[in-house]
Amino acid sequence: MNAADKAGLPSGQQSYLPSADAMARRRQRRYLADSAARWMVRAGGGGVVVALALIFVYLFSEVAPLLRGASVEQAGQFQAPGYAGSERSLLVLERYDTLGMRHSSDGRLTYFRLEDGSPLEEIRLEVPAGVTVDSVAIGEPRSRRVAYGLSDGTAIVVDHETRLEFTDGVRSVVPAPAFPLGRTPVQVDDEGQSLATLAVQETRDGGTGLAARTSDGRLVFVRFRATTSFLTGETELERRAWTLPRPPGEVRQLQLTANLWSLIGIDDAGTLLYWDISDPAAAVLRDQASAVQEGERVTELKMLNGTFSMIVGTSLGNLSQWFLVRDERAAAGDNIFRLSRVRDFDTHPGAITRIQPEYNRKGFAAVDDAGGLGLHYGTSARTLYLEQVSDVPLRSVGVSPIDDVVIAEDETGRILRFDVWNQHPEVSLKALWGKVWYEGRQDPEYVWQASSGADSFEPKYSMIPLTVGTLKAAFFAMLFAMPLAIAGAIYTAYFMAPKLRGYVKPTIEVMEALPTVILGFLAGLWLAPFLENHIPAVFTVLVGLPLSFLVIAWAFSRLPQSLRASVPPGWEAVILLPVIALVVWGLVSLSPLIEIWLFDGSMRQWFTEIGITYDQRNALVVGIAMGFAVIPTIFSIAEDAVFTVPRHLTQGSLALGATSWQTVTRVVLLTASPGIFSAVMIGFGRAVGETMIVLMATGNSPVVNFNIFEGMRTLSANIAVELPETAVNSTHFRILFLAGLVLFAITFTVNTIAEVVRQRLRERYSSL
């Protein structure tokens, strides 16, 4: 008997029943389909995990070079060209790493090939007979200016320039020394005393400043400016000289700032001296500070790029950075500065013999008499490299303008050449996440300022302002969106009539498709000026609107039953629509009068008087605009969570005598809490990653505060603003990737915490 006979089916229908083989094939196909679906789901989930991991790996690969120190490898050595025994030298390089220049303390400038040390050209200065070179000074590296102080009170100034020549398409770098004040010596000391110590700087207008200590202990300061006649072509040298206040001790080294407003010196006792020479005729010794410990002496003093900071090297191998900080005790408007010790670097094994600043950054190279070579950086307070590279003392060091080659000369006249990788010295954990004392600042601060028009600019890469700005924007957005979205979700899912819910829920969800660039545009160009002109309305609406709801609810409850019954259940919210419009319109209209009655006509000015900063594009504007962008996300997920609460729970609560409000607070919210919490966390993640609204609705000021009336700069907005303009693989470029990595970490952490909390809430209330 077949399956059809056993089933008792009529014979006409028996042919429609599948056979056992067909049933087996169907089950096999179903099994294969289920298996394929299961593996596709697994592959999709695994693909998401792999994609996230690859994003993290890529971001970290771009950030990882920031964590590297400097690497230094010796690439060759040769005898210094023109070496004549015990004379000291200054070493400099040109930007193509082809030529080196050596200034000898006996008055010779030698150009040599960096590859093998072979001399290319030697320039002997026109030192008068019977006159000796008693001092040599070098200015800011970018100026390429060196001055030789002579024993008769004169000086010769030379620029170790080079020029490019092309022969048959081949580039070559050739010497092109220049004498901005002429080849013959210029008078520095009118009394003709030897210039025992000398400092030189090129001014921003092409002039030259010289400061010197004479052999009889006087300090003189001279400015030179060469002007060329347009008609005759003759060059006229303008000279102005002053005598500065005598120092308390014998000055051993001097340094000038590029603006010629300050003169820094060091004496035998290790005291750092600061003269204010902004008005040379009324120059004053403004401050003194001890730069050494007992039994220690200063052996080297150099200005860093920009001549805002100075580096002090000592006989014990210590290195410290100093700069001038405005005196807080000074009267308002008085620019009086004091010497401040800002930071220290790793100690060298021997006495510091030479410090050479970098050309375009706040770093420097230092050598010592134990053969040690160190690469240090000011802003990040990093010692990137410190090793002994020679068995004999090193006496001079030169740094390439592009920071990829360092040369050092030892006391035997041997020059060592090193290839250097030192691309990101500005970065350290402290510089990124701690307070840093930047040049020109009163105290250590958190500052983000990645670029400036000045070559001597000190980049400021603190991540704190951007991280705080991101959290600030998200916090105020959630403060605005959370109550509205969650309360709206509860009312829509539990109290609203199904027909009305069918209009409301899709309408709010469609809001999520609104481009955030439109919201940012409206917030920046309409909402921000509107709020600025109606500041009191912000507070009156915040208080007045809920009070009006309570008044309308109380009035509705006092209406006759027949009138209340005419409003279908779940449609009560429609009554509030005209109330909201009228109350908001009325309070906004009263805003000017409130300002006149309570704030003397301007609430913004009143904020300023009590010390609260008000910016037109601020966190309040961002909170409202970004809140509207976040509300649909939170509302949709929370509404689904409330709506899917099992009916038997709510009906059972009502059957036991609980009111609707008690049922919502004691049953519905507890059961839906995992979904509501997930909605809040997803909304928070959405707010953290928002870009266009914060980009257009804030002043993009990287400040560290939670003032609702000030702007901010977020991680995402900062990436959008600065990434298109930064150089690929630069420090700035990689720090922007670090900002992306931080943003990725924040959202990943928030989502992970949200999932853990959601699971625990689900387990806790699953028994309801």
Write a structural description:
The chain is α+β, with helices and mostly antiparallel strands. It folds into three domains: 71-89 and 294-443, YVTN repeat-like/Quinoprotein amine dehydrogenase (Methylamine Dehydrogenase, Chain H); 128-159 and 180-290, YVTN repeat-like/Quinoprotein amine dehydrogenase (Methylamine Dehydrogenase, Chain H, 7 Propeller); 462-559 and 567-765, MetI-like (MetI-like fold, Orthogonal Bundle). Helix content is 38%, strand content 26%. It contains 16 helices and 32 strands. The strands form nine sheets. Strands 1-30-29-28 form a four-stranded antiparallel β-sheet, with no helix packed on it. The two termini are 53 Å apart. The model has no long low-confidence stretch (mean pLDDT 89).
Instruction: Determine the CATH superfamily of the largest domain.
Output: MetI-like
Computed structural class: alpha+beta
Using the CA coordinates, give the radius of gyration: 38 Å
Strand content: 25-35%
Number of helices: 16
Strand order of the largest sheet: 1-30-29-28
Residues in helix, %: 25-40%
Do you know the CATH topology of the largest domain?
Answer: MetI-like fold
Shape: elongated
- CATH first level of the largest domain: which class? Mainly Alpha
